[in-house]
Amino acid sequence: MWIVVVSLILVVFFALCSSLFALMATSVPVVRTPEKMLAEISKLAAVQKSRIIVDAGCGDARTLLALCATQAACGRGYELNGPLKVFAMFRVLLAGRRKSIKIYFRDFFRCELEDVDLVYCFLMPAVMRRVGRKCLEEMRPGTRLVSYLWEVPDWEPTETIKLGGREDPLFIYVLEPEIKKDTNLPN
After folding, report:
1. Mind listing the domains of the chain with CATH numbers?
2. What is the DSSP string of the chain?
């Protein structure tokens, strides 16, 4: 009996440490895209021939699954919170999408975006400039960056859509060649 109790305490301790590490490393707390917004976001974020969709900080993978289901695409989710990553993997497994959607225990800022068609993020304002810089440096023209609630500083969205009763903004950016050369990349 005491082995079970000690094991449970260790699991909880490591889960808390992992969550604290993720918060300290990213400056982004666990935030989830509201369930009632997922269908609308999936429809509005659509790219005609999306093959690869990335969720920067995928959490429990709800949004990534919704985006990939709507577009029959492959997905990559990046999550540094260990318990959330495990939960996301189970969610993908239960959805029968483990071959087409991969969840990585990795920082979004350390992944590659050259082959991506759509990047979705619901992060915090403090990291959005860095997200924009990464996307400018790595994404090819025509790729979409979709951000729920927070704008990328110094970028002009291609489209801003108000969602739900609270009219939460969804910012859609389409990376065009002129953006790549005209947009400054301040730190």
Report:
1. 2-182 (3.40.50.150)
2. -HHHHHHHHHHHHHHHHHHHHHHHHHS-------GGGHHHHHHHT--TT--EEEEET-TTSHHHHHHHHHHT-EEEEE---HHHHHHHHHHHHHTT-TTTEEEESS-GGGS--TT-SEEEE---HHHHHHHHHHHHHHPPTT-EEEEES-PPTT---SEEEEETTTTEEEEEEE--HHHHHHS----
Residue whose structure tokens are 């969205």: 157
Provide the phi-psi class of 26: left if phi over 0, else alpha when psi is between -120 and 50, else beta.
alpha
How far apart CA 96 and CA 174 sit, in angstroms, is 30
pLDDT in tens, 118-165: 999 998 898 999 999 999 999 999 899 999 999 999 999 999 999 988
d(CA 19, CA 145): 26
Whole-angstrom distance, CA of residue 136 vs CA of residue 141? 9
